[in-house]
Specification:
The protein is mostly beta strands. It is 4% helix and 46% strand. It has one helix and twelve strands. The strands form three sheets. A four-stranded antiparallel β-sheet has the order 1-2-3-4, with no helix packed on it. A four-stranded antiparallel β-sheet has the order 5-6-7-8, with no helix packed on it. The two termini are 31 Å apart.
Length: 171
């Protein structure tokens, strides 16, 4: 939104002009769609429906979507150099075979805590993973943010309500 008062305080301020033309890549209804990542090696979009416990793979050329269902909420993915996708789940980090759809536990994390689930997570510089958890019903302060490297888990922050938008700067 354009604010004339702010604009008068900033030299060369010009409101952002946005192109509102867009195409829908995939006609999929998600209850809580999250964690989109682009796999440039396979030319596919990967994302999750946390509530419906589903991993999606979308091919923008063929406009096809394939899915893998889980027994627990899943929220984020991490690419590897193989057909294995690491997936953040309410039980921890899973290894998911993108071809067969099979999965197994890779790193246990809060699997005994049925009040929490995974949420926003990112690959950090150095290829470590920052893994966020939160309350399934938005309970205040029961989530955390963990650092995972070579299967070693370190809790970085506790008393988190909603872990979201984990980002890293170059410095």
């Amino acid at each position: 939104m354009y604010d004339a008062k702010i604009a008068s305080q900033v030299k060369n301020y010009e409101p952002l002009k946005m192109n509102t033309n867009f195409d829908i890549a995939f006609f999929v209804k998600n209850e809580l769609g999250e964690g989109p990542i682009w796999d440039s090696n396979k030319n596919q979009l990967i994302w999750f429906d946390i509530i419906r416990r589903t991993l999606f793979f979308g091919n923008p050329i063929t406009r096809t979507v394939s899915t893998i269902g889980f027994e627990m909420p899943v929220s984020a993915g991490f690419l590897t150099n193989t057909n294995i996708l690491l997936v953040a789940s309410s039980d921890g980090l899973l290894e998911v075979d993108q071809i067969s759809g099979s999965y197994r536990n890779f790193v246990d994390l809060e699997s005994q805590n049925h009040l929490t689930r995974s949420n926003d997570s990112r690959t950090a510089p150095g290829n470590s993973i920052w893994f966020g958890t939160m309350g399934r019903n938005l309970e205040k302060g029961i989530g955390a943010i963990y650092h995972i490297k070579d299967k070693k888990v370190t809790k970085l922050f506790s008393n988190i309500t909603v872990s979201n938008s984990i980002c890293f700067s170059k410095n």
